[in-house]
Write a structure and sequence with these properties.
It is found in: Secreted, Extracellular space, Apoplast. With 220 residues, this protein is mainly beta. It has two helices and nine strands; from the N terminus they run αβββββββββα. Strand 3 and strand 4 form a beta hairpin. Bound molecules: 2-acetamido-2-deoxy-beta-D-glucopyranose (NAG) (2 copies).
Amino acid sequence: MLISKTFFIAFASVVVAAVAYHEDISPSSLGFLEEKLTHIRFFFHDVVTGPNATIIIALSPLMGKSKAPLPFGSLVMLEDPLTEGPEPDSKLIGKAQGFYTMVTQREDIDLELVMGMTITFTSGKFNGSTLSLFGRNYIFDPVREMPIVGGTGTFRFARGFVRAKTYTVDYYKGDAIVEYNVYVFYYANQGSLASSLLHHHQEGFSNGFEFMTDPLLTKI
Ligand SMILES: *[C@@H]1O[C@H](CO)[C@@H](O)[C@H](O)[C@H]1NC(C)=O
Ligand SMILES: *[C@@H]1O[C@H](CO)[C@@H](O)[C@H](O)[C@H]1NC(C)=O
């Protein structure tokens, strides 16, 4: 009797715990109906120098101590425009924001990077949706492949890869235009429940212009 009661309590608590914080659900119960593969092509404009630079070298602890132009440990932050065609004044379709780090200790012009960035679409059917990219980018490979590790909005549950290929490069300044071909799986037909998750209102930030303007923050 005691044993079975103990067993029952142990068993019941396992069941309760399972229900309390996780449950298996089907994709369709959240409105995710049909998975689809899409190819997206755009051009990435990386401006290294001048008044309209799109990057900053945020950290470079070995700069000057190493023979490499961008030494091991350097961290570059970027915010690059993405356009439909290769010309800088071609139609803007989004932006890439993130970083790349130098990940090799070899002291030559051997740009081996790890890159992490979000791609935010600002026009067309993907407007407001994002893709997250994270991977190795060995600049001297003619085509660099990096994984798409997720997404938001239309691209919830996204997975895929990009193939990045230099279109033009100014070897002196480092400015580059790179063609990105993205191959991504995601749910093309998100039902009303999935789309309602997209449109919920964020009440908390109605005082947006005062948010984080306390001078204390500047003293940290
Ligand atoms: C920088 O951007 C401004 C505004 O788009 C443009 O007028 C100017 O020509 C650009 N400067 C350079 C050096 O590209
Ligand atoms: C993209 O979406 C934003 C926010 O909903 C909207 O303000 C903007 O006009 C849209 N842009 C285009 C080109 O559709």
